[in-house]
Amino acid sequence: MNFTLHIWRQECAHAKGHFETYQIDNISPDCSFLEMLDILNDQLITRSTLNSQLSTTLNSQLSTLNSPITHPVCFDNDCREGICGMCGLYINGRPHGNDDGITTCQLHMRKFHDGDDIWIEPWRAKPFPVIRDLVVDRSALDKIIQAGGYISTTTGGVPDANTIPIPKQDADMAMDAASCIGCGACVAACKNASAMLFVGAKVSHLALLPQGKVEAAERAKKMVCKMDELGFGSCTNTYACEAECPKLIKRQNISRLNRQWIEALFGRDGK
Amino acid sequence: MNLDSKIPSGPLAEKWTNYKASQKLVNPANKRKLDIIVVGTGLAGASAAASLGAMGFHVDIFCIQDSPRRAHSIAAQGGINAAKNYQNDGDSVERLFRDTIKGGDYRAREANVYRLAEVSGAIIDQCVAQGVPFARDYGGLLDNRSFGGAQVSRTFYAKGQTGQQLLLGAYGALSREIARGTVKLHTRCEMMDLVVVEGRARGIIVRNLVTGDLERYAAHAVVLATGGYGNLYYLSTNAMNSNGSAAWVCHRKGAAFANPCYVQIHPTCIPVHGDYQSKLTLMSESLRNDGRIWVPKKKEDAEAIRAGKLKANDIPEENRDYYLERRYPAFGNLVPRDVASRAAKERCDAGYGVGTGYAVYLDFADAIQRLGKEAVEQRYGNLFQMYQKITDENPYETPMMIYPAIHYTMGGLWVDYELQTTIPGLFAAGEANFSDHGANRLGASALMQGLADGYFVLPYTMQNYLADQIYVGKISATTPEFDAAEEAVRVRLNRLLQIGAQATLNSHLSTLNSVDHFHKALGKIMWEYCGMARNTESLNKAKALVKDLEEEFWKSVFIPGTANEFNPELEKACRLEDYFELAQLVIDDAMHREESCGGHFRTEHQTQDGETLRDDEHFMYVAAWEYQGHGQPETMEKEPLVYEHIKISNRNYK
Q1: How many helices (H) and strands (E) does chain B have?
Q2: pTM of this structure
Q3: In degrees rounded to 5, what are phi and psi of residue A178?
Q4: 3.40.50.720, 3.20.20.330, 1.10.10.10, 1.10.1060.10: which CATH number matches A138-266?
Q5: ipTM of the complex
Q6: Do A81 and B175 touch (CB under 8 A)?
Q7: Cα–Cα distance, B305 to B314 (Å, whole number)
Q8: How does pLDDT run across A207-233, given as a tens digit for each residue?
């Protein structure tokens, strides 16, 4: 299969970015999207060496070799099986591309048509500044978790695991919420760059379990305040986040977050 | 080299209790004055940092990814073992200990393994308290499943995402300590060197991967929790950025490397399909609970399937060879990983493979009939979905195709009972050390070991080391040792970047290649000649090929860009440079171990039925290697394995 790629190139956080166009041919339909970018990068590396053969002095050769255009395209990736949350590209206007319930690394070229134009951009959201090309800084999500997205327990001194039975339904719902991989697609999909689905998933996961209930309201308050402080937008209930979540996290988690938030503001009995 | 394993005296079951009762402690006021560096944020690193931080030590933790939650522990699917005996099926600490020793083919240290089994139950308690949503039954209590090498159900799980949930638990505990200020987090930082001062580990040099700056960090002790070196083989189930370099730079600085040839090959991975492929995806071992592995009984059927003339479902029951059930009736599809992998290779080499010829079927038709599609979906839904996305085939309707792939490395930095390496003050935890799995790791034991080391072992044993460190004061990062280490890293990076420029000068341009080109070539050599089966001939061949490839690398690898910017190609080049040395050591270790045990299969040493043939008389020891300089053969010292408690026998799963 052959494709025309339009890729966002940006040398560093402060540089001005632009789209660069690349032609890539003979791609197997079984190739994954990131493997297709690997092939492109390999070609960019060898092509830049070929181009430089034409130049005469070492200096001009080196400057061709190191020009930003021929530098391989930087993109984050790691596990390549859809669980680490490291990869995340905006492909033809959709976070993680045109398939449901998958991350970018699980997208395969068979989902495209031969000859397609493909537009590839980084996550675009104020709290996620670009580091280089398609790589963004998502440490804001860690900071939200640090604000309270955990159960305050230290190592040791905890009861036996079977001391508190948990209804299977609650455990299953908690598991569904906990399967968030922190990739940031929900933020990238949201027109307000809100992190409500991310926060809602963590708040729900812990609030559904008896161990996490103790701090539930306080947790919701702290995480939402941190989210606001870091520059994430507000939720206006359009649920683009739910539509694009690679782990199919449900919007009901946002409702649960709102309930915890109200409890935190007014107290459980309205006091 | 001092290989004192420091195993406490007394009966096996009392060793750990005795150790804890007599070890040295650090009082709370002094803990605040002691600095600890933890490298790696997977299960071992995150749990160690969280526990040490909560105790009051000052911890700096480093990871190469953008967040601690990305560490590759996150990808562990099936589960975590613990001797809780919740199922009342006869499990106990003693039995988990014995299964692990036997699974490791009698090449692990008794005392370490017993301690692992002993603390396993507390791990589950800890995780539940952190909010890990383990699977539960309708009564609300915890559920279990079975894994290879065990006849009890002791594996706790959270769908097919157990590693993710355990890591998020540890990440939560770590985040709490970061918020409390006891732990400082450094993301997108790669450890480039270990700084040793007066014989003790005193700090690290890291490269900030965003800016390219080299930074120094000093501490009273360093914990290495950076995982294994499976990516040496290029195609593996490891993440793309998993690497062996942090452990390797410690090895260069004097830490012994133990049993490097013990590499685990996982039987159930999605087969290789093209040379552009970047990684292999694991299909959890838990699938072997309900899936049955088979190939056609008749060669002509296998040939017809490969030619696309027949489909799996066309083969009638009587013409299917369920070779694991046939060869190992007692354990059936749940034999340990090395046994299942070799059996698959045996069938494919004999011409019975399906797909490309290097694949076997993992069939769920029976389970779907017995339990219903919904129940199967409940148990393995996410794995089935993952399979379908990659292969474009529906495993509910047609059997999965699987083949073995590199998955885990049992070898690693040599550590004593306290998880301290041969460099005082340098500790190694999780997959980075060698201690608990012998020559083969059982399924669901990696998560157990990572968390055991981090939550329940290091917080005790490190105090024993740190107790007298309260007298040395703050460690300075401006000493000549730090200067020298930083300068060496700078020289190393420049040398790599110069290769392309040098080749340009000599007009060798047309032969320049990317880092990945060399990494793929190295992986192919290692898989072919030092993979599932090895012999003197293949290892000699591997050695020569690796040496040639390394020379080629130094002549013609092209790394674009500079050292002072975000430059993933440079990161990969450094890691590959280390893999060339590591590959030589893996081959040397495989060559010297003239026996077959666990994941190490020497074709010269096998029984008539093709099972591993150990040589306990000559090889019942840990091989600990000492670095002698680049290109020099390493020297090896032996730590004898003494079995006082367990009766050594043949590893029989029939």
Answers
A1: 19, 19
A2: 0.96
A3: -75, -10
A4: 1.10.1060.10
A5: 0.95
A6: no
A7: 9
A8: 999 999 999 999 999 999 999 999 999
